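Q:
Just now I want nothing more than another pair of eyes on a protein record. Here is the record:
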Amino acid sequence: LFVPEAIGQLRQTFPGVEVRVTEEVYPDVINGFRQGRIDFAIAPVPERGLGREYKTLKLLDTDLVVAVRRGHPHARARSLSELQEEGWMVMGPRAGPGAIVEKVFGRHGLKAPTTPLYLETVWSALEVIKHSNLVGFLPDPLARWAAPDISIVPVAEKIPALRIHAITPAKAIVTPAARALMSAIRASAAS
């Protein structure tokens, strides 16, 4: 949600710059760097890190919440155990961000639910949750923004925060415009 504001700031400083925004998840974002398609990424970093090939700058931590469509039969569940039999959607592959469901349930001694749907974009995740009975983790600000169509399930279990970073290849020469956009994103995320 902070990227559009940052792009507005960038356009004031660099009115003629062309910006291309894509949604990719780890590990696909690494391929984007290797193919020269992207200058930097705003994304969570895997627990094991990215290695020396990449520089990361922490932008923010955001809470994850359990989200369902408005009117979902389990919208008032108080525990993840009440959601074990539900189908869950996951953003990203199991080897990356998609591992969150298994990790969270496992940390609380619960069997992970089925995850029949893996999505690559945040916006598709919002739409799937709004129009199905699937359950998913979403960043809290995004779930609140979508609140007319989405309910936050008040589970008692602690869900780890999502740590968002700016990521660049360590050897890349970042353009002044990309540097300005990263700075604007960081400022927008901090406010």
Summary: The radius of gyration is 18 Å. The chain has a mean pLDDT of 90.
